[in-house]
Amino acid sequence: MTKHWADFQYEIYLNGMTGAVPRLPTDLTRLEELTEQRLGPGPVGYVAGSAGNGSTARANRAALERRRIVPRMLRDVHERDLSVEVLGRPLPAPLALAPVGVLSIMHPDAEPAAARAAAAQGVPYILSSASSTPMEQVAEAMGDGERWFQLYWAKDREVTKSFLDRAKASGFTALFVTLDTPLLAWRPRDLDQAYLPFLHGVGTANYFSDPAFLAGLAKPVHEDPNAAVMHFVGMFADPAKTWPDLEFLRESWDGPIVLKGVLHPDDARRAVNAGMDGVVVSNHGGRQVAGAVAAADALPRVVEAAGDRLTVFFDSGIRTGDDIFKALALGAEAVLVGRPYAYGLGLDGQAGVEHVIRCLLAELDLTLALSGHSGPASVGAEDLEEEPA
Ligand SMILES: Cc1cc2nc3c(=O)[nH]c(=O)nc-3n(C[C@H](O)[C@H](O)[C@H](O)COP(=O)(O)O)c2cc1C
Ligand SMILES: O=C(O)C(=O)c1ccccc1
What we know:
two-stranded antiparallel sheet, globular
C-alpha cells in the first residue's frame, strides 16, 4: 500500500508554474487564525480553547518543540513507504483523524465531509459520540473507508449498548473509549463567551436518534428540546466509573478496544489487565486537566509500560509532519490529529481536510527521508535529542 505523499510537494510547485498557489497555507499552524477571521470568535474559541489558562496546551507544544531530530546521512532513502499495520489493519501512514465532536460549528457539511476526506486519503476516521450527524449517515458517506468509533461511556448502560450495536452494524471496526472526560473541564474561553454547542442541541445527533436514549425522555425531542439537551448533559459521561466497569465493554464489543486519555504507566498496565488492545497517550489537546503533564513527556513511560501488549497511539499538539516523526521516535505506533483538520474543514470543507492530511503526510515523508529513514519502522529514540529545559 505505498502511496507517494511527497508527490503533493511537486504538485504544488508545478501548479505554481501556472501561477496557481494552494487554496490554504501549507504551514498548518496558520489555519487557526484564518479560521477565526472567517468564522468569528465563538466556534473557533470552542475548537482552539483549552482548560484553565491554556498551560497544558502550551506544554504539549513545548514538549514537542524541545525534542529535536538528529538527521543521518547517506542511507539510501530514494524509495519510501509510510504504511503501517495498526490494530490488525493495514494503513497507508501512521495517522488517523481524532474524534472531534460538534463539527457542524465549523462547516455545514460537518462529520460526513471530514469522513469522506479521510476515506479519500485512506486514513482512518474516528467518529465522536458527540457528532452533529448520526453515525449511520457518516458511515454511509465513507463507503468502505476505515472507521473507528469513539465512545463517550454514558451513565445509562442501555444507551452505551445501543451505541455499540449501532456502531458495529455501521462498519466501525475499533472502539476508542475516552476516559479523560467524565466531566467537561473549566474552559474559560467558552465560559466567558457563554458558548457551548450542546446547549443548542449541536453534537447530540447520535443521542437524539437513539431508541434507548429517547426511551428516557418524558416528551419527544421536538416538544421539549431543552429537556432533551439536559438529559444528554446529565448522562453523556459518568464520573463514577472505575476499572472493573471495563468488563462490560469488553463483553459487549468483539473488536479492538483502545482507551483514550492515558498518561500514567500504571494506567497502561491496568488497560492490559482489563483485556484492552491499546491506549491513546493524550491529554485531550490540553482541554481537560489544566496543569497536566505534556502528552509527549508522558509518552515514553507509557510505551515502556505497554511493552508489546498494547498498541500505543499519541495525540495532543501534533501540527506538522516533523511532530509526527517525533511521536514515532518517542515510541508511538500512530498519531491522531484534532484541531488542524477541524480548521481545514472550517476553511474549505472536505477539500480543506484533505489538504491537512496531505500536508502532514508529505512533510512526514520528507522529514523521514531527510533524516535517513525510508519508513516509520526504523525511527527510534536515537533520532531525537532533548534540548536542555
Ligand atoms: C473541538 C474539539 C472537540 C473534541 N471532541 C472530542 C470528542 O468528542 N471525543 C474525544 O474523545 N475527544 C475529543 N476531542 C479531543 C481530540 O480527540 C484530541 O484528543 C485532541 O484534539 C488532540 O489534540 P490536538 O487538537 O492538539 O491535535 C475534541 C477536541 C476538540 C478540539
Ligand atoms: O470539547 C471536547 O473536548 C469534547 O471532548 C466534547 C465533549 C462533549 C461533547 C462534544 C465534545
